[in-house]
Amino acid sequence: MPELPDVEGFRRVLAEHAGKRIEDVVVHDAQVLRGVSAQRLRKSLTGQRFEPPRRLGKWLIAPVGGRAETLVLHFGMTGSLSTGPPHRHDRVVFRMAGGELRYRDMRKLQGLRLLGESGLEELLAGTGPDALEVPKGRFRELLPARRQLKAALTDQAVLSGLGNLLADEILWRAKLNPRTPAGELSPAEVDRLHARMRSTLRTAVRAGRVPPRASWLTGHRDEPSGACPRCGTALRHGRTGGRGTVWCPRCQPG
Prior knowledge:
Blueprint: H1 4-15, E1 22-27, H2 38-45, E2 49-50, E3 54-56, E4 59-65, E5 69-74, E6 79-82, E7 90-96, E8 99-105, E9 112-115, H3 117-124, H4 136-142, H5 149-153, H6 164-174, H7 187-207, E10 236-240, E11 243-247
Antiparallel strand pairs: 1-7, 2-4, 3-4, 4-5, 5-9, 6-8, 7-8, 10-11
Cofactor: Zn(2+)
Protein name: Formamidopyrimidine-DNA glycosylase
Pfam family, one: zf-FPG_IleRS
């Protein structure tokens, strides 16, 4: 599932094509369009150029030069943006001078929007600050005291960009149990959580994904008898806030 590091990678892909003329927009599957028809998307974008894109959490936001509109992309569970060869799950293709950008998505749970200024503000109004950018003091204020840590970290209205893999990885690195209510953390634990979140995200952004390294929890979470890469204890699997969760009972007691 694309999380903040993946979407940052997609932003870089789109940024490489900012300023290039969009020669055509081919919609192979209009089911990924949200609030805009294939005809209007093509008419609005053909002949225009994307301005430098930005990211907020899992949202990729690309202003369209020459128009008071913005293309907004969300990648759901299986989406991506690439310049690779054609694939049967390509849903929308942007043809530009020198290449093509392909919005690819197998499950089609999210998609593309074309919004004016007010529509963009309304869409993002309930989105929390970006997990990579939020300062330590603001992070302390954001954590809802009664929410369990895993649920709080993955709530996009609290903090944007974190999903299952990142939340579990960050909590494992911070040695905090995912079911601990945020209000029970000491100030030092909150600061440690913030620090581990920042360092984990920076490494993952460089990798363009949450890397399944042997030294990471992510590298062992899907093993039938996975063990903690730090202490060797058998990992626990359960559900927290309706989400599949993995943790080490020794490193993250609670």
